[in-house]
């Protein structure tokens, strides 16, 4: 038989060979673990992320857990070994060097083997690229909060600020570039400098979805990358909040309505004549006309009602005025108040 032959280590003849050795020499020589002599671990002093296969990985792990992860990744058991059990023991610690004793047990060719190895782990304290970007004030995008032909209210600014900070923090749990490097107050609004463009876009979309308005991106050339020669751009994303707010009254193509809400596509309104809901795309923003403000809504006393129309006492002129109503009746009783708005001399009931 070809495979039964002579063992060069012990001289035994007529043996089945395992990688050129007899069974007992093979078991003596085989290494249960393939293990490097030294491991270098880079850990960020700022965020505790660590470098693995060239990549920085976020972590909330303790140093011990990070080392264990490295050891597990770098220790390779012999492929046909069974029942492998590994124990780590720290023999010595000097500054950033840790000398580990690795005790391994396992079975090869049905035979129980135990072996010991040494591995030197060196901890390098470093700053990951993301933390160094943060530290240097690096940003990829600026969110500009602006308003059209009006001053942003303190309430709006607070809401914007809350949304930005809350989302930056939430996203930062999975994206280390989610940070605000700077907030600048200008007379026309606020600028938020954001680490990541992707994060800035996501947040602008969230704001846009609740506050409406117009979004515009403009890249600015900040210089050149010395190594590639390519232009370095930063993106300014402006969110211009509309000149009107929820509750205000708009005219668009002869239709008059009260603003009930926004999303990032549309302005939602309620028709003043028919009370039916409708919407107008932000693309038509320039063609919208503000015909009254929410603050123009008045309380008037109902003085008479008949199917198809009602009579009220105008709160400013105290004159009785008639309003045609589309429905059969309104629930308000004579003598009670209802909300009205006067647009170009015509009164509308707001419900
Ligand atoms: Zn042998
Ligand atoms: Zn870091």
Describe the fold and architecture.
The protein has helices at residues 23-29, 63-74, 129-135, 154-172, 197-211; strands spanning 4-5, 15-16, 33-34, 38-44, 50-52, 55-57, 76-77, 82-94, 97-108, 111-126, 141-147, 180-186, 189-194, 214-224, 231-241, 249-252, 255-262, 266-271, 277-281, 289-292, 298-306, 309-313, 320-324, 337-343, 346-350. It has three domains: 31-129; 137-241; 297-351, OB fold (Dihydrolipoamide Acetyltransferase, E2P). It is built from five helices and 25 strands. 17% of the residues lie in helices and 46% in strands. Helix 4 crosses helix 5. The radius of gyration is 37 Å and the shape is elongated. A five-stranded mixed beta sheet has the order 12-13-11-15-14, covered by helices on one side. A five-stranded antiparallel beta sheet has the order 19-18-17-16-20. It has a five-stranded antiparallel beta sheet with strand order 23-22-21-24-25, with no helix packed on it. It is of the alpha+beta class and 351 residues long. One zinc ion (ZN) is lined by residues 44, 46-47, 49, 128, 130-131.
Summary, kept brief:
The chain has 351 residues and is of the alpha+beta class.
Distinct small molecules = zinc ion
Whole-number count of domains: 3
Structural class: alpha+beta
Mean pLDDT: 91
Shape: elongated
What would you report as the Rg, rounded to the nearest angstrom? 37 Å
> What's the multimeric state?
single chain
Strand portion, in percent? over 45%
Alpha carbon gap, first and last residue: 100 Å
Strand arrangement in the largest pleated sheet: 12-13-11-15-14
How are helices and strands ordered from N to C?
EEHEEEEHEEEEHEHEEHEEEEEEEEEEEE
- Total beta strands: 25
């Amino acid at each position: 038989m070809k495979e039964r032959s002579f063992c060069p280590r012990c001289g035994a003849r007529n043996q089945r060979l395992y990688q050129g050795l007899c069974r007992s020499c093979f078991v003596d020589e085989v290494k249960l673990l393939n293990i490097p002599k030294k491991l270098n671990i880079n850990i960020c002093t700022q965020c505790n992320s660590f470098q693995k296969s060239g990549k920085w990985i976020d972590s909330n792990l303790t140093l011990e857990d990070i080392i264990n992860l490295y050891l597990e990744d770098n220790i390779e058991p012999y492929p046909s070994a069974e029942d492998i059990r590994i124990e780590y023991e720290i023999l010595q610690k000097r500054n950033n060097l840790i000398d580990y004793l690795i005790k391994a047990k396992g079975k090869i060719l049905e035979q129980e083997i135990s072996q010991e190895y040494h591995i030197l782990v060196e901890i390098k304290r470093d700053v990951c690229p993301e933390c160094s970007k943060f530290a240097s004030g690096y940003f990829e995008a600026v969110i500009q909060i602006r308003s059209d032909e009006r001053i942003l209210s303190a309430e709006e600014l607070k809401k914007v600020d809350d949304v930005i900070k809350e989302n930056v923090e939430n996203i930062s749990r999975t994206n280390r570039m989610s940070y605000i490097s700077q907030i600048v107050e200008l007379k026309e609004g606020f600028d938020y400098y954001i680490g990541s463009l992707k994060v800035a876009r996501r947040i602008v979309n969230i704001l846009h979805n609740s506050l409406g308005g117009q979004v515009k991106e403009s890249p600015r050339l900040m210089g050149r990358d010395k190594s590639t020669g390519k232009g370095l751009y930063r993106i300014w994303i402006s969110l211009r909040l509309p000149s009107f707010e929820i509750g205000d009254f708009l005219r668009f193509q002869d239709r008059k309505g009260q603003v009930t809400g926004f999303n990032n596509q549309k302005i939602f309104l309620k028709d003043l004549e028919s009370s039916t809901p409708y919407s107008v795309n932000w693309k038509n923003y320039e063609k919208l006309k503000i015909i009254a403000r929410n603050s123009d809504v008045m309380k008037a006393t109902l003085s008479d009602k008949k199917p198809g129309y009602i009579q009220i006492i105008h709160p400013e002129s105290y004159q009785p005025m008639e309003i045609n109503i589309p429905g059969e009746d309104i629930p308000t009783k004579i003598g009670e108040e209802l909300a009205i708005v006067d647009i170009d001399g015509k009164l509308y009931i707001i419900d």
